[in-house]
Protein backbone atom coordinates (compact mmCIF):
# COMPACT_ATOMS: atom_id res chain seq x y z
CA UNK A 1 0.00 0.00 0.00
CA UNK A 2 2.38 2.70 -1.23
CA UNK A 3 1.61 6.10 0.27
CA UNK A 4 -0.60 8.00 -2.15
CA UNK A 5 -1.73 11.56 -2.49
CA UNK A 6 -3.72 13.43 -5.08
CA UNK A 7 -1.62 15.86 -7.14
CA UNK A 8 -2.22 17.64 -10.46
CA UNK A 9 -0.37 14.78 -12.14
CA UNK A 10 -1.33 11.18 -11.47
CA UNK A 11 0.97 8.20 -11.64
CA UNK A 12 4.62 7.94 -10.53
CA UNK A 13 5.60 10.97 -8.49
CA UNK A 14 8.92 11.14 -10.33
CA UNK A 15 7.05 11.97 -13.54
CA UNK A 16 6.17 15.32 -11.96
CA UNK A 17 9.82 16.21 -11.33
CA UNK A 18 11.31 14.60 -14.43
CA UNK A 19 10.49 17.41 -16.94
CA UNK A 20 12.01 20.03 -14.62
CA UNK A 21 15.16 17.99 -14.03
CA UNK A 22 15.61 17.11 -17.68
CA UNK A 23 15.78 20.81 -18.56
CA UNK A 24 18.82 21.21 -16.32
CA UNK A 25 22.24 20.76 -17.98
CA UNK A 26 23.38 19.14 -14.75
CA UNK A 27 20.88 16.31 -15.23
CA UNK A 28 22.72 15.00 -18.29
CA UNK A 29 26.01 15.37 -16.43
CA UNK A 30 24.59 13.43 -13.51
CA UNK A 31 23.45 10.62 -15.83
CA UNK A 32 26.92 10.56 -17.38
CA UNK A 33 28.49 10.10 -13.96
CA UNK A 34 30.15 13.53 -14.02
CA UNK A 35 28.55 14.81 -10.80
CA UNK A 36 29.19 13.56 -7.29
CA UNK A 37 26.32 12.87 -4.91
CA UNK A 38 26.99 16.12 -3.06
CA UNK A 39 27.09 18.12 -6.29
CA UNK A 40 23.81 16.59 -7.44
CA UNK A 41 22.25 17.34 -4.06
CA UNK A 42 23.09 21.03 -4.49
CA UNK A 43 21.51 20.99 -7.97
CA UNK A 44 18.28 19.57 -6.54
CA UNK A 45 18.25 22.22 -3.80
CA UNK A 46 18.66 24.98 -6.38
CA UNK A 47 15.88 23.55 -8.55
CA UNK A 48 13.51 23.07 -5.61
CA UNK A 49 11.22 26.08 -6.35
CA UNK A 50 10.62 24.96 -9.94
CA UNK A 51 10.07 21.33 -8.88
CA UNK A 52 7.50 22.34 -6.27
CA UNK A 53 5.74 24.66 -8.74
CA UNK A 54 5.38 21.66 -11.05
CA UNK A 55 3.32 19.94 -8.35
CA UNK A 56 5.97 17.72 -6.76
CA UNK A 57 5.35 17.12 -3.02
CA UNK A 58 7.80 19.33 -1.07
CA UNK A 59 8.45 16.62 1.54
CA UNK A 60 9.63 14.27 -1.23
CA UNK A 61 12.31 16.64 -2.61
CA UNK A 62 15.22 15.04 -0.67
CA UNK A 63 14.50 11.70 -2.35
CA UNK A 64 15.36 13.27 -5.71
CA UNK A 65 18.92 13.50 -4.39
CA UNK A 66 18.96 9.69 -4.23
CA UNK A 67 17.91 8.97 -7.81
CA UNK A 68 20.67 6.82 -9.32
CA UNK A 69 23.00 8.39 -11.85
CA UNK A 70 22.86 5.23 -13.94
CA UNK A 71 19.76 3.15 -13.17
CA UNK A 72 20.75 0.29 -15.48
CA UNK A 73 24.16 -0.02 -13.83
CA UNK A 74 22.53 0.03 -10.39
CA UNK A 75 20.13 -2.77 -11.33
CA UNK A 76 22.90 -4.83 -12.91
CA UNK A 77 25.05 -4.41 -9.78
CA UNK A 78 22.16 -5.43 -7.51
CA UNK A 79 21.45 -8.53 -9.61
CA UNK A 80 25.16 -9.37 -9.65
CA UNK A 81 25.22 -9.16 -5.85
CA UNK A 82 22.14 -11.37 -5.65
CA UNK A 83 23.82 -13.83 -8.02
CA UNK A 84 26.85 -13.99 -5.69
CA UNK A 85 24.43 -14.93 -2.93
CA UNK A 86 22.93 -17.63 -5.15
CA UNK A 87 19.54 -15.92 -5.24
CA UNK A 88 19.46 -15.41 -9.02
CA UNK A 89 21.36 -17.10 -11.84
CA UNK A 90 23.11 -13.92 -13.00
CA UNK A 91 22.77 -10.20 -13.65
CA UNK A 92 21.93 -10.47 -17.34
CA UNK A 93 18.41 -11.94 -17.26
CA UNK A 94 16.34 -9.77 -19.58
CA UNK A 95 12.61 -9.37 -19.05
CA UNK A 96 10.56 -11.60 -21.34
CA UNK A 97 7.77 -9.00 -21.40
CA UNK A 98 7.79 -5.24 -20.98
CA UNK A 99 5.94 -3.16 -18.42
CA UNK A 100 2.17 -3.12 -18.89
CA UNK A 101 1.20 -0.36 -21.36
CA UNK A 102 -1.67 2.03 -20.70
CA UNK A 103 -1.75 1.46 -16.95
CA UNK A 104 -4.63 3.40 -15.35
CA UNK A 105 -3.62 5.21 -12.17
CA UNK A 106 -7.19 6.18 -11.30
CA UNK A 107 -6.18 9.67 -10.14
CA UNK A 108 -3.61 8.28 -7.69
CA UNK A 109 0.08 9.00 -7.28
CA UNK A 110 2.69 6.39 -6.43
CA UNK A 111 6.15 6.70 -4.91
CA UNK A 112 7.67 3.83 -6.86
CA UNK A 113 10.65 5.30 -8.72
CA UNK A 114 11.68 4.13 -12.22
CA UNK A 115 14.64 2.00 -11.17
CA UNK A 116 12.53 0.32 -8.46
CA UNK A 117 9.97 -0.77 -11.04
CA UNK A 118 12.69 -1.93 -13.42
CA UNK A 119 14.49 -3.79 -10.62
CA UNK A 120 11.37 -5.80 -9.75
CA UNK A 121 10.80 -6.49 -13.44
CA UNK A 122 14.33 -7.84 -13.91
CA UNK A 123 14.27 -9.76 -10.65
CA UNK A 124 11.04 -11.54 -11.56
CA UNK A 125 12.40 -12.31 -15.02
CA UNK A 126 15.38 -14.01 -13.39
CA UNK A 127 13.46 -15.82 -10.64
CA UNK A 128 10.48 -17.07 -12.65
CA UNK A 129 8.22 -17.33 -9.57
CA UNK A 130 5.20 -19.62 -9.85
CA UNK A 131 3.19 -18.06 -6.99
CA UNK A 132 3.68 -14.42 -5.98
CA UNK A 133 1.85 -12.39 -3.34
CA UNK A 134 1.89 -8.62 -3.01
CA UNK A 135 0.98 -7.43 0.50
CA UNK A 136 -0.07 -3.79 0.51
CA UNK A 137 -0.42 -3.80 -3.28
CA UNK A 138 -2.08 -0.33 -3.42
CA UNK A 139 -3.51 0.06 -6.92
CA UNK A 140 -1.04 -2.40 -8.40
CA UNK A 141 1.54 -0.13 -10.02
CA UNK A 142 4.66 -1.85 -8.64
CA UNK A 143 3.04 -5.21 -9.36
CA UNK A 144 2.48 -4.13 -12.96
CA UNK A 145 6.24 -4.37 -13.56
CA UNK A 146 6.25 -7.97 -12.38
CA UNK A 147 3.00 -9.35 -13.77
CA UNK A 148 3.98 -9.66 -17.47
CA UNK A 149 6.97 -11.86 -16.56
CA UNK A 150 4.98 -13.79 -13.96
CA UNK A 151 2.34 -14.58 -16.58
CA UNK A 152 4.97 -15.38 -19.23
CA UNK A 153 6.48 -17.89 -16.82
CA UNK A 154 3.07 -19.54 -16.29
CA UNK A 155 2.90 -18.13 -12.79
CA UNK A 156 0.11 -16.54 -10.77
CA UNK A 157 -0.05 -13.42 -8.61
CA UNK A 158 -2.28 -12.32 -5.74
CA UNK A 159 -2.56 -8.61 -4.87
CA UNK A 160 -3.84 -7.91 -1.35
CA UNK A 161 -4.89 -4.49 -0.06
CA UNK A 162 -7.65 -3.53 2.41
CA UNK A 163 -8.63 -0.30 0.63
CA UNK A 164 -11.61 -0.95 -1.69
CA UNK A 165 -10.95 2.19 -3.77
CA UNK A 166 -7.44 1.12 -4.79
CA UNK A 167 -8.51 -2.51 -5.15
CA UNK A 168 -11.06 -1.44 -7.77
CA UNK A 169 -8.34 0.36 -9.76
CA UNK A 170 -6.10 -2.71 -9.60
CA UNK A 171 -8.96 -5.00 -10.60
CA UNK A 172 -9.67 -2.86 -13.67
CA UNK A 173 -6.00 -2.85 -14.68
CA UNK A 174 -5.58 -6.62 -14.39
CA UNK A 175 -9.05 -7.67 -15.54
CA UNK A 176 -7.67 -9.15 -18.77
CA UNK A 177 -5.27 -11.42 -16.84
CA UNK A 178 -6.96 -14.36 -15.13
CA UNK A 179 -3.58 -15.24 -13.60
CA UNK A 180 -3.88 -12.16 -11.35
CA UNK A 181 -6.24 -12.13 -8.36
CA UNK A 182 -7.02 -8.88 -6.55
CA UNK A 183 -8.12 -9.34 -2.93
CA UNK A 184 -9.64 -6.50 -0.90
CA UNK A 185 -8.83 -7.57 2.65
CA UNK A 186 -6.20 -7.21 5.33
CA UNK A 187 -3.21 -9.41 4.63
CA UNK A 188 -3.43 -11.12 8.02
CA UNK A 189 -7.08 -12.07 7.57
CA UNK A 190 -6.54 -13.26 4.02
CA UNK A 191 -3.49 -15.33 4.91
CA UNK A 192 -5.23 -16.89 7.91
CA UNK A 193 -7.72 -18.46 5.47
CA UNK A 194 -5.26 -19.14 2.64
CA UNK A 195 -3.90 -22.61 1.85
CA UNK A 196 -1.48 -21.46 -0.87
CA UNK A 197 2.31 -21.37 -0.66
CA UNK A 198 4.40 -18.69 -2.36
CA UNK A 199 7.90 -18.34 -3.72
CA UNK A 200 7.91 -14.52 -3.93
CA UNK A 201 6.42 -11.99 -1.51
CA UNK A 202 6.49 -8.23 -2.13
CA UNK A 203 5.80 -5.85 0.78
CA UNK A 204 4.79 -2.20 0.47
CA UNK A 205 2.29 -1.53 3.26
CA UNK A 206 1.90 1.28 5.74
CA UNK A 207 -0.46 2.35 8.52
CA UNK A 208 -0.98 5.84 9.99
CA UNK A 209 1.73 6.92 12.40
CA UNK A 210 -0.91 7.66 15.01
CA UNK A 211 -2.21 4.09 14.93
CA UNK A 212 -3.31 3.01 18.43
CA UNK A 213 -0.90 0.07 18.40
CA UNK A 214 2.66 1.50 18.47
CA UNK A 215 4.04 -1.72 16.97
CA UNK A 216 1.98 -1.19 13.81
CA UNK A 217 2.63 2.49 13.17
CA UNK A 218 3.95 3.42 9.75
CA UNK A 219 6.12 0.64 8.35
CA UNK A 220 5.98 -1.19 11.68
CA UNK A 221 3.23 -3.21 10.03
CA UNK A 222 5.90 -5.05 8.00
CA UNK A 223 6.84 -7.35 10.89
CA UNK A 224 3.25 -8.46 11.42
CA UNK A 225 2.83 -9.08 7.69
CA UNK A 226 6.04 -11.07 7.45
CA UNK A 227 5.03 -13.20 10.42
CA UNK A 228 1.67 -13.85 8.77
CA UNK A 229 3.09 -14.83 5.37
CA UNK A 230 6.09 -16.83 6.64
CA UNK A 231 4.16 -20.11 7.11
CA UNK A 232 3.05 -19.80 3.47
CA UNK A 233 6.55 -19.45 2.02
CA UNK A 234 8.58 -22.24 0.49
CA UNK A 235 12.21 -22.61 1.50
CA UNK A 236 14.12 -20.47 -0.98
CA UNK A 237 11.25 -17.99 -1.35
CA UNK A 238 12.31 -14.40 -2.03
CA UNK A 239 11.26 -11.37 -0.02
CA UNK A 240 11.22 -7.89 -1.60
CA UNK A 241 10.26 -4.82 0.46
CA UNK A 242 9.98 -1.14 -0.37
CA UNK A 243 11.14 1.76 1.84
CA UNK A 244 14.07 -0.10 3.37
CA UNK A 245 16.34 2.88 4.03
CA UNK A 246 18.98 2.79 6.73
CA UNK A 247 21.96 4.16 4.79
CA UNK A 248 22.26 7.36 2.78
CA UNK A 249 25.06 9.20 1.00
CA UNK A 250 23.31 12.47 0.08
CA UNK A 251 24.41 14.37 3.18
CA UNK A 252 20.87 15.74 3.60
CA UNK A 253 19.94 15.83 7.32
CA UNK A 254 16.38 14.96 6.28
CA UNK A 255 17.50 11.34 6.04
CA UNK A 256 18.82 11.33 9.60
CA UNK A 257 15.18 11.60 10.67
CA UNK A 258 14.04 8.97 8.14
CA UNK A 259 16.70 6.52 9.30
CA UNK A 260 15.90 7.14 12.98
CA UNK A 261 12.20 6.54 12.29
CA UNK A 262 12.96 3.39 10.32
CA UNK A 263 15.12 2.05 13.13
CA UNK A 264 12.12 2.43 15.43
CA UNK A 265 9.39 1.19 13.10
CA UNK A 266 11.31 -1.55 11.30
CA UNK A 267 13.54 -2.96 14.03
CA UNK A 268 11.44 -6.09 14.66
CA UNK A 269 10.93 -6.65 10.93
CA UNK A 270 14.64 -6.27 10.15
CA UNK A 271 15.64 -8.72 12.88
CA UNK A 272 13.26 -11.33 11.47
CA UNK A 273 14.13 -10.57 7.85
CA UNK A 274 17.89 -10.70 8.39
CA UNK A 275 17.76 -13.91 10.42
CA UNK A 276 15.36 -15.75 8.12
CA UNK A 277 16.21 -14.25 4.72
CA UNK A 278 19.71 -12.76 4.86
CA UNK A 279 17.89 -9.55 3.95
CA UNK A 280 19.99 -6.79 2.30
CA UNK A 281 19.24 -3.08 1.73
CA UNK A 282 19.88 -1.73 -1.76
CA UNK A 283 20.32 1.96 -2.54
CA UNK A 284 17.39 2.77 -4.79
CA UNK A 285 15.65 6.13 -4.47
CA UNK A 286 13.36 5.07 -1.61
CA UNK A 287 15.30 1.93 -0.67
CA UNK A 288 14.51 -1.69 -1.54
CA UNK A 289 15.40 -4.71 0.57
CA UNK A 290 15.77 -8.23 -0.87
CA UNK A 291 16.45 -11.60 0.74
CA UNK A 292 15.88 -15.34 0.33
CA UNK A 293 14.33 -17.63 2.92
CA UNK A 294 17.09 -19.94 4.11
CA UNK A 295 14.97 -22.58 5.81
CA UNK A 296 11.81 -22.85 7.88
CA UNK A 297 13.95 -23.92 10.82
CA UNK A 298 16.11 -20.76 10.70
CA UNK A 299 13.01 -18.57 10.65
CA UNK A 300 11.45 -20.10 13.76
From TrEMBL:
Gene Ontology MF terms in the entry: methyltransferase activity
Enzyme Commission number(s) of this protein: 2.1.1.-
Single GO biological process annotation from the record: methylation
InterPro entries: SAM-dependent_MTases_sf
Keyword field: Methyltransferase, Transferase
Taxonomy, superkingdom: Bacteria
UniProt protein name: Class I SAM-dependent methyltransferase
